[in-house]
Amino acid sequence: MSLSSLQRRIRTALGSHRKPAQAISAVLRRWPDTLAGRTLTLLIGMTLVMLVGSALLLHDERRDRFEERNLFYLLDQVTTLVLLLNDADRAGRDGIIASFARLGDTISLTDRPAVGGSRPWRYGLEHMIQHKLRAALGIENREFVRVALELDARKKVAPIPPDLAEADAKRLHQDIRTADVTGIAVSARLRDGGWVNIRTARLEEPPPWAGKTLQLLAMLLAVVIAAGLLLTRRMARPMARLADASNRLGLGQAQAQLAEEGPREIRQTIHAFNRMQERLERHIRDRSYMLAAVSHDLRTPITTLRLRAEYIDDVEMRDKTLATLAEMEAVLSAALSFARDEAADERSRPTDLGALVQSLVDDHADLGGAVSYEGPHRSIFHCRPIALKRALNNLIDNALKYANTAGVQLLEERGSRTILIEDDGPGIPEADLERVFEPFFRLETSRSSETGGTGLGLSVARTIVHAHGGTLLLANMPSGGLRAVVRLPE
């Protein structure tokens, strides 16, 4: 086989399975997304399969019972009638036949059988009825008991070919049941040589379904659904609380230890989460203590050096030394502030975000900055206001430092808030839009001739925004200038 023909066969096989795969994918897309929903769907689906299977088995069982009852009535009627007629004289036989005749039955006494003789084949149901009648009447000769079925034309039972062997005919129509029959004719020979011919059409069919059974199954399904709802909600509630606690932990919100409840796997997960939360809080607390000590230890020698620099006689050298020490102190303060992340100790609370942004804009305007605000005057939002104010202040400072004007816009969206800070400056090269968030990275010549800053303002701003679960992105505007986009989720 050539490689090209093999490839064609593979493509053909894959194409033939494409539609089933698409159907499976469509079903999976409709699969519930929650643990409770999937568990409940699986429980209801398995229960429905069990109930449908049980209903089908029950229906078959009821049909078999009705079939047995039909045959019992027929055999009992024919056997009793033949035995009574054998013992009665001709005058009494008419009364016996009259007492046995019912609506749908035909009984007659003749010298010849109404049912034909031997055939090369018989239905399995005919053979069974004949065998049971001969055994009940004590008749050994097969020709003295004859049975013929009248089949329902609507059932579309195919006739057996005349030349078909009897064994093959029995196998072909072994599934013939009384439900497929409209009438049964029996001819039995009496002791005096006469024949009694009986035809009955009183064959009862089982009802399609039992009403009480369906009601019971429906009640059972309702109980399963109700129990499944309670079970899945109880099982999924600890996981929902764990997800909410994880989200609050990521946002720095205060929270107590979670109750360890639910299945064993969920209890183990909650226990691990509680231990992790304890370790994180201890780590942050220890780091804050260590950084406070480092800050104190470094600020003391810098202050000592500044005092000693005051005694330098050379004015130019003294000024340069003091400037260097001031720069060292500024870098130290910025680095410690960035590493300490003061926002971590602040707890979230409902805050008027509109008033917060407006106050920042007004403060910069009072200092001579050309900055404007656009947005709602009141917008309640759950956040850490001091930390968020610091991040937005860094962004507005950055915009006014490298541009003439800046505009701040607050947008209220469903489930989030978006703050846009736009300026008319030279922007940032596309390759550096992400690098400017790196600590101590500065664009000294691309946006201003003055270096200024320590290169930590944007890093601190993004750290605070990320601590709120939000995002901070920078983008150059087509008309010129830089746009900072802060998105904060609820």
Automatic annotation (TrEMBL):
Ranges for domain HAMP: 233-285
Bilayer-crossing regions: 35-58, 213-232
Pfam family, one: HisKA
Residue ranges occupied by any Histidine kinase domain in the UniProt entry: 293-490
Keywords linked to the UniProt accession: ATP-binding, Cell inner membrane, Cell membrane, Kinase, Membrane, Nucleotide-binding, Phosphoprotein, Transferase, Transmembrane, Transmembrane helix, Two-component regulatory system
Top-level taxon of origin: Bacteria
Gene Ontology cellular-component annotations: plasma membrane
Location of the protein in the cell: Cell inner membrane
Gene Ontology molecular function, alphabetical: ATP binding; phosphorelay sensor kinase activity
EC code(s) of this entry: 2.7.13.3
Enzyme class: transferase
SUPFAM superfamilies the record matches: ATPase domain of HSP90 chaperone/DNA topoisomerase II/histidine kinase (SSF55874), HAMP domain-like (SSF158472), Homodimeric domain of signal transducing histidine kinase (SSF47384)
Catalytic activity: ATP + protein L-histidine = ADP + protein N-phospho-L-histidine
Membrane topology, record value: Multi-pass membrane protein
InterPro entries given in the database record: 2C_sensor_his_kinase, HAMP_dom, HATPase_C_sf, HATPase_dom, His_kinase_dom, HisK_dim/P_dom, HisK_dim/P_sf, Sig_transdc_His_kin-like_C
PANTHER family in the cross-refs: SENSOR HISTIDINE KINASE ENVZ, SENSOR PROTEIN CREC
Protein name, per record: histidine kinase
Lineage summary: Bacteria, Pseudomonadati, Pseudomonadota, Gammaproteobacteria, Chromatiales
